[in-house]
């Protein structure tokens, strides 16, 4: 039997992938008390990186799609850590990093791709504090990376 959150994901046509293993010397998540701290999840879908530096207005939608994929990958880590997505009490904080040119200033619009999915899936519990930061480069030349702090029951 699936829970409420998994049913919501199914209605959105989203299949949660297996949680990715770390690419270096770190762990994918840490549980401290009732908080789950998730390492940055990159824009990767079906084993392929969603890459490229965002430089202009036309890149916003591609960036939003990459950020949405980061949300899906974060949800995969939540499931791996907690076993049941219905245990999420609150999405506390997201930090989004956008691989962008120096003159690109729409990082918040890009990271909305992640934020919007969390609110759609978790409702009011998905509303969170957030940072959206432009960076010169990301691992594997991905377009977006997002880390999260989750409160759980």
From TrEMBL:
It comes from the Bacteria. It holds the Pfam family YjgF_endoribonc. SUPFAM superfamilies: YjgF-like. Residues 6-143 form the Endoribonuclease L-PSP/chorismate mutase-like domain. This is Enamine deaminase RidA (YjgF/YER057c/UK114 family). It comes from Ancylobacter polymorphus.
């Amino acid at each position: 039997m699936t829970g409420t959150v998994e049913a919501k994901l199914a209605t959105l046509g989203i299949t949660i992938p297996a949680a990715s293993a770390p690419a270096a010397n770190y762990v994918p998540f840490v549980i401290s008390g009732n908080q789950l701290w998730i390492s940055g999840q990159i824009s990767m879908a079906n084993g392929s990186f969603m890459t490229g530096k965002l430089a202009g207005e036309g890149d916003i939608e591609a960036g939003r799609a990459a950020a949405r994929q980061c949300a899906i990958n974060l949800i995969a880590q939540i499931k791996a850590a907690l076993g049941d997505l219905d245990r999420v009490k609150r999405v506390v904080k997201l930090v989004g990093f956008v691989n962008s040119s120096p003159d690109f200033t729409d990082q918040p619009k890009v990271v909305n791709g992640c934020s919007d999915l969390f609110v759609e899936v978790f409702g009011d519990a998905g509303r969170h504090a957030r940072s959206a930061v432009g960076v010169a480069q990301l691992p594997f030349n991905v377009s977006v990376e997002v880390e999260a702090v989750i409160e759980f029951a």
